[in-house]
Amino acid sequence: MKDRPKIIQLHGSGHAIREIARDHEVSRNAVRRALAEDARMDYWRPSATEEFEPAVRDVLADYPHMSVPDIATMIDWRKSRRTLSDLVAKLRPEYIERADSEAADDGNISAVSMDSLRAGSFKALNVLGYSDIEAHELTAKEVEWWTELKNATHV
Asked: 9 vs 3, which has greater pLDDT?
């Protein structure tokens, strides 16, 4: 109850529970709960994100650039997308900085030869030290195009 101090004051000054309930547009039982000795003085309810924050941190630790809808799918998020977006926006900078510093410290630059490109293949790349850049599946047409490009450069 948000107005607990006011309700206690009104009840202490002799107002009836029914009158307080009518004036504040709440039930009489809500007024009784506000007058209970063990009731909180201020309104509090847990955040929807508290339960999921460790899971979001785990995902961001492995995939700092993952989109919010993909994170929602991975952690089985059933609440508002905006709520999750706010949580990810709050946590992501920490993991991006960490990933960028690890990539800069690594210093490994690797390349994949054109011969390794195949239709339907998936190969993770470490391009310029950023390990979160990946190559995705190629269609047969894309493989054909890359092959033609490779043959044209060898002439």
From this structure: 9
**pLDDT value for 115:** 56
In the three-class reduction of DSSP (H, G, I as helix; E, B as strand; rest coil), residue 81 is classed as: helix
Q: Which residue's structure tokens are 């410290």?
A: 105
Residue 44 lies in a domain: no
CB neighbours of 60 closer than 8 A, spacing ≥ 6? 66, 71, 88, 91, 92, 94, 95
| pLDDT tens track for 23-53 | 999 999 999 988 888 877 777 788 888 999 9
In a domain, 47, yes or no: no
Number of domains in the chain: 3
Task: Examine the domain organization and report whether 28 and 57 are in the same domain.
Answer: no
Both 147 and 126 in a single domain? yes
Per the confidence metrics, is the pTM higher than 0.90? no
What is the residue range of 63's domain?
A: 53-106
Query: Using CA atoms, how far apart are residues 155 and 152, in angstroms rounded to an integer?
Result: 6
Pick from 91, 104, 99, 95: nearest CA to 132: 99
